[in-house]
Amino acid sequence: MMYNFFRMKKYWLLLPFFSLAFSLNVTAQFTRYIIKLKDKDGSVFSVSNPSQFLSQRAIARRVRYNIAISQTDLPVNDSYIQTILAVGGGVRILNVSKWFNQVCIITSDPTAITRINALPFVLTAAGVAPRPANTNNKSDKHAKPTINVAASIVAARPGSPNNVYNYGLSYPQIHLHNAEFLHNHHFRGEGMQLAIMDAGFLNYLTLPTFDSIRTNNQVINTWDFVAEKQGVNDAHPHGTNCFSTIAANMPGTFIGTAPNANFLLYRTEDASTEYPVEEQNFVAAAERADSIGADAFSVSLGYNTFSNSIFNYTYNDLNGNVTLIARAANMAAQKGIAVIVAAGNEGNNPWRYITTPADADSVLTIGAVDKNRQIASFSSFGPSSDGQIKPDIAAIGTGAVVANESTGQPMYGNGTSFACPIMAGITTCLWQAFPEVNNMAIIDALRQSSDRVSNPNNRTGYGIPDVKKAFVALQKKLFAQHIFIDDKCKATLQWTVKTASEMNCVLERKLPADISFVPIDTLQVISSFSKQNFTYSDDFTELSAGDAISYRIKMNIAADTSFYLDSVTVINTRSCKIWKENILISPNPVTDILSVKITSNTPANIDLVVKNLLGQQIYQTSHTTTIGMQTLTIPMQQFSSGIYFVMVLVDGKKAVVKKVVRG
User: Fold this and answer.
1) How many C-alpha atoms does 632 have within 13 Å on its Cβ side?
2) Cys-Cys crosslink for 358: which of 310, 315, 365, 425, Cβ 3.0 to 4.6 Å?
3) What CATH architecture does domain 580-662 belong to?
């Protein structure tokens, strides 16, 4: 349910700057403004010392994914902020954006804006919201006609008894994506941080839905960017509903998609009106989450028309590069964050299309379907105006199970607002398993695992993802192997793969005489899911030169799934056969000529070596034999009487050692 969060059109940055184009009488209708600054000259911060403005977790994300610290990470010049505050007129700072080098202020004095515009470091000043008392939209844009409350709730299939959770009513929205597979293998959001931007999180501090996250202190940061305060437990319930699809932990009743993640809850949306200041609020929240170290965003917000039509967007504006919120979403993605966004609920409305920031090219945009995989009629259409496939994928948004904001018990709701957090939680769990790959690789794995990947459309994009398939694809992406044959007729296979104690690798081999592959070894570790190195040595004794030997590695993940990681075929370049039974040395004792009769079925290099009792080599000769029987000789008459050891080497390998008496 989007609660109609999708209302906007043409953004203020595209228009002439209001402070210059409007008269003071027109400007007076605004009290909140964006002041865009020219530079960050004179900053006391440096990209070479990021710990001054980024947490170690945020820095680690950049290092892990090779993301450079840039000027956009530097805080806004504080001396500029202090100068703006000093112009008078009751100017107060609401929030600041370092990414876009701008400041959001509030003032009721239009002449203060004139003075700010005159400052040498100010690029523009533009109004983005009126006085709260002067709003022309008193209705609650988040009214709830799409919520079907508990009367429609029926018993849900709980899934396999082998599942770690009894999902209760939420099983369909988990199982549609095989997300129970991730939960069963310990990927439930542990160690991950997920930020949610919304209109409020009413009663989340008291509802039983969130008992676990309160007990475990999983909400690590909150801020209300609308009311300028720490708490977000009031205002609107929309965020509560969305949050529950991720964080609920009510066994047998309602389980979210990432119940063990840590959360950052931010109110950026004012439910009673629609103005561009909410986009600026989103930017400030995104930057705060990034600086703390968030891994992913869940964004069930969208804009296309405003309470004041001068701000409205057109469809052409939705190309991912125009609106402030789309540019902010893309910037977050550039910082290594996975940004998951609701497509919008405009499918039955004249607008029809996705809203912003669903148009951002680096976000994962989510459309809505029901549990039977049918498209929700209200789900917004793509593509974006520049032709991107949007939505990217789809999740349950018709009959989604969400928490009732009054009781905490599950109820049903409709909207891409719910499809978005369902998928945000799943994305977070998948990334928990594969932190080696970056945000865009995780997004691509979800797209490629979807049921319309070969034929995407403008309603569900690439389709409904299967995270078990995405998991397998990422396993194969990170898998590496090497094989070599040494000079002693041994093949050594080495491979690296992520595995855990409930998983194993079965090595299969196919020799020339085999009809099919035969398992030859099973390798397993006792550990949590991590990268492991495996080695297997295979003896090529009795193989002939030119023989082809094929190997393949099958991975079993408990009873859930099996798949082949890779296969390889090698050619044995030399004969490894030893013919002990075909080598005859006579006579013994010997006085003159010692005969060495060799029968072979392939050519071979033969070395004859004679050593005395002291182990000293006193004779050596080399021959190349052909197929069949051949007789080689050793002139023993040249040696004095005594005991000797005659050694026959075939292709460098010791085949026979025999004690011989020289009479």
Assistant:
1) 23
2) 365
3) Sandwich (2.60)
